[in-house]
Design goal:
By secondary structure, chain A is α+β, with helices and mostly antiparallel strands. Chain A contains three helices and five strands; from the N terminus they run E-E-E-E-H-E-H-H. In chain A, strand 1 and strand 2 form a beta hairpin. The model of chain A has no long low-confidence stretch (mean pLDDT 93). In chain B, a hairpin with a 4-residue loop joins strand 3 and strand 4. Classes of the chains: A alpha+beta, B mainly alpha. Chain B: It holds the Pfam family MRP-S22.
Chain lengths: 126, 391
């Protein structure tokens, strides 16, 4: 895997559908994502139009997940009519850049229900 | 290789041990915002004059990878241009790190969404990496796992800035020198003041409490060991003098200046303390008189540079015997005149209630007066012997 500049080297058609999505970098058992703008029809590992951020899903020493967003370029591409993949839309929602994605609410609700169930099971067993 | 691993494990431990991350606090802290007084043009010129400009100290050999020198043949015009550039570079290297008040961290909430509780097991930190923003304007926000979105605290902002836009020389962990009391103490006891101050300047922002704490620790230690000459002609001399003037403990530094025959600096230090504490004594007229008689440090350094390349015969042809006498004595008529004014001003200070170590200072003044008198007599005698006019 060779490194390409963040400005991207991907060729694209003027009218083609663009999408803001993740590209999985990193290696086995160590995911790391680039947030990129690319043509929707392309495979994730093909050259991108532009990299607009990064996302490290594994918590660091301070127990936080780090996300970097080039908000100026993201807003530019959204204004151009770029689509959003669901994970990217969720992340931008959490960042406060877009409204919170419904799926985030679903995850939160399911996590809460699971925790409540476990607590109840523990209470009945003890 | 194992040494690196050992150091890395020590640094990793430090993150997880929050109790050991702070040094003991220094006793002297700025009680008000020192910034307006420090950045004031008059204060800056006083501090710059006190710092002096010794070129061989500014451009001394450092422990850097490349200490090579370059030899060139030049015409006198090119040489003159090179001199001016060297002075300009030295002035740039002597720029003082600013003294500003400690920034207080305020919590700024953006939104609070109870329906988002437990959406993830950890918090998310979002950094805006838009090109071309200055570090101070870069927005960093944190989404806690309970759904609150807020601006990150100063410590996180600094960590993220260092992560995405690293500053050369700044470490992403705090050097153990600044977390381990014993290491800092051993550095202080071996008088590595400039090293500590340089590293603190790189590692910390000027508004951080740790920066103020380390500066105070160093200056307090320096005031006891009295090795002020180690910082002279470095970028930390100005903040040091300002610190002593602010906390009313200039007497040791004053004694050092008088002992080394930097009387104009001593007068400037006293003037600075008068200015900071708003003591109703007229110091401006004295300063004006002194500045009329003496050249600024930069001018003096340039003059020394020009003199240093002249051959003795040429020097005699250009400046005559008068300059030869000045070089032998180390002082000119103007210097003697300004010393007179400074002495009067310093004695006025020693007699006032602001001086704490009166006996010591008086003795130093007395010794200096005798030495100066001898020099003046020699100066006049030499001039008379060579038939040069004496005023």
């Amino acid at each position: 895997m060779s490194l390409t500049p963040a400005s991207g080297i991907g060729r694209f058609y003027k009218q083609s559908a663009k999408i803001i999505r993740f590209v999985r970098q990193g290696c086995t058992n160590r995911p790391f994502y680039h947030i990129v703008v690319m043509e929707r029809r392309k495979n994730q590992h093909q050259p991108v139009i532009e990299q607009v951020g990064s996302y490290d899903p594994l918590p660091n020493d301070f127990n936080e997940r780090l996300v970097a967003l080039n908000t100026e370029r993201i807003r530019f591409w959204l204004g151009k009519g770029a689509h959003l993949s669901v994970p990217a839309a969720e992340l931008l929602g959490i960042a406060g850049l877009l409204p919170i994605h419904p799926r985030t609410y679903m995850t939160a609700w399911r996590n809460r229900r699971k925790a409540a169930d476990e607590a109840q099971a523990e209470a009945t067993s003890s | 290789m194992s040494l690196f691993r050992h150091i890395r494990s020590l640094n990793a431990l430090q993150i997880l041990r929050p109790g050991r991350r702070h040094l003991s606090t220094a006793s002297l802290q700025y009680d008000q915002d020192p910034q307006p007084l420090f950045t004031d043009a008059e204060t800056q010129s006083l501090l710059q004059s006190m710092t002096q400009l010794q070129l061989d100290k500014v451009f001394r050999k450092r422990t850097v990878p490349d200490n090579s020198t370059e030899m060139k043949f030049m015409t006198p015009d090119q040489l003159e241009k090179e001199f001016v550039q060297a002075i300009e570079k030295a002035r740039h290297l002597l720029q003082m790190p600013p003294i500003v008040k400690v920034k207080v961290d305020t919590e700024r909430l953006i939104s609070k969404d109870a329906a988002l509780k437990d959406f993830a097991s950890t918090k998310y930190v979002f950094t805006d990496i838009t090109y071309g923003l200055p570090q101070s304007e870069r927005k960093v926000v944190v989404r806690e796992s309970d759904g609150t979105l807020a601006y990150a605290n100063l410590e996180t902002v600094k960590r993220m800035n260092q992560l995405y836009f690293p500053l050369e020389g700044r470490k992403s962990y705090i050097p153990r020198m600044f977390t381990d009391e014993e290491l800092l103490k051993s550095a202080l006891d071996t008088h590595k003041y400039e090293f500590i101050l340089d590293r603190a300047t790189v590692q910390y922002e000027p508004y951080e409490p740790e920066f103020h704490n380390i500066l105070s620790r160093v200056f307090e230690h320096l005031n006891e060991s009295k090795q002020f000459d180690l910082l002279r002609s470095t970028r930390h001399f100005g903040p040091m003098a300002f610190f002593y003037a602010w906390h009313r403990c200039i007497d040791d530094l004053l004694y050092d200046m008088i002992r080394r025959d930097y009387l104009h600096n001593a007068a400037e230090l006293i003037a600075l303390s008068y200015k900071i504490h708003k003591i109703p004594l007229d110091y401006r007229s004295t300063l004006e008189q002194i500045s009329a008689l003496r050249s600024t440090p930069a001018e003096k350094a340039l003059e020394d540079l020009r003199n240093s390349i002249q051959a003795p015969e040429e020097r005699q042809r250009v400046g005559g015997i008068e300059q030869e006498i000045h070089l032998a004595i180390g002082k000119t008529e103007n210097d003697f005149a300004s010393d007179e004014i400074c002495l009067k001003f310093i004695e006025q200070y020693i007699a006032s209630e602001h001086a704490l170590k009166k006996v010591q200072l008086e003795l130093a003044i007395q010794t200096l007066k005798e030495v100066n008198l001898e020099k003046l007599q020699l100066f006049k005698g030499l001039k008379k012997a060579h038939g040069v006019n004496v005023n």
